[in-house]
Every structure is written in C-alpha cells, then in structure tokens.
Amino acid sequence: MRKHLHTARQPEVVRTALRFALIVGPILVFINHGDAILAGTMDSTAWLKSALTMVVPYTVSTLSSISAYHSCRSDSQNG
Questions:
Q1: Which of 30, 43, 50, 62 is 20 to 30 A off residue 20, Cα-Cα?
Q2: How confident is the model at residue 70, as a pLDDT?
Q3: Residue 29 domain boundaries
Q4: Rounded mean pLDDT of the chain?
Q5: Would the pTM of this model clear 0.85, i.e. be above it?
Q6: With contact defined as beta carbons under 8 Å apart, do 61 and 16 qualify?
Q7: Inter-residue long-range contacts of 4-10, CB under 8 Å, 24+ positions, other chains counted
Q8: Is residue 72's pLDDT more than 90?
Q9: Rg of the chain over CA atoms, in angstroms?
Q10: 12 within a domain of the structure (yes/no)
Q11: From CA 42, how far away is CA 49, in angstroms rounded?
Q12: What share of the chain has pLDDT > 70, as a percent?
C-alpha cells in the first residue's frame, strides 16, 4: 500500500490526473447537472455532488497510473 501511495504522489502522476480531471470533470458535471446549471436551480447539494464528480476522473487516472507503473516494474523484473 505504501508503494502505491508513493506512486500516487509522484509529480507526473498528479499532473496527468489533474489534466484528466480538468477535462473530463466538467464534461461529467454538465452531463449530470447541465440542465440545472443553465436553469440556475443548483442547490448546495447539487454543487457538492458536482465537486465530487470532479474527483472521479482524478481518481481513475491516478489508479490507472499506479497500475501501469507497477505492472511495468513487475514485467521488467521478471524478464
């Protein structure tokens, strides 16, 4: 678990995850809440859900990077 957290904090992993979050996050927010945003009917719960939606692509990207990094390391050590 420690090695995964160490990988997740690497600058390149963080930068990549932030890029994904800033591109995919707003798309997901608009898909899920676009009508309420355009109508001006967003309440605090919807804004909180929108903020949490932005975390999803960051998390997916980070987990994918961790998996790829450790898979590559495992392959290079075995062959």
A1: 43
A2: 86
A3: 19-65
A4: 93
A5: no
A6: yes
A7: 4/66, 4/70, 7/65, 7/66, 7/69, 7/70, 8/62, 8/65, 8/66
A8: no
A9: 17
A10: no
A11: 10
A12: 95
Distance between CA atoms of residues 79 and 59, nearest Å:
30
The angle formed by the CA atoms of residues 5, 11 and 15, to the nearest 5 degrees, is 105
Residue type for position 8? A
Domains contained in the chain, number: 1
Is residue 18 within 8 A of residue 58, CB to CB? The reply is: yes
Whether 27 is in a domain gets the answer: yes
Alpha-carbon distance of 78 to 33, in angstroms, equals 47
Answer yes or no: is 14 within a domain. no
Considering the domain boundaries, does residue 2 fall inside one?
Answer: no
DSSP per-residue codes, 1-60: -HHHHHHHTSHHHHHHHHHHHHHHHHHHHHHHHHHHHHHT---HHHHHHHHHHHHHHHHH
Q: Take residue 76 and report the two structure tokens written for it.
A: 């290079």
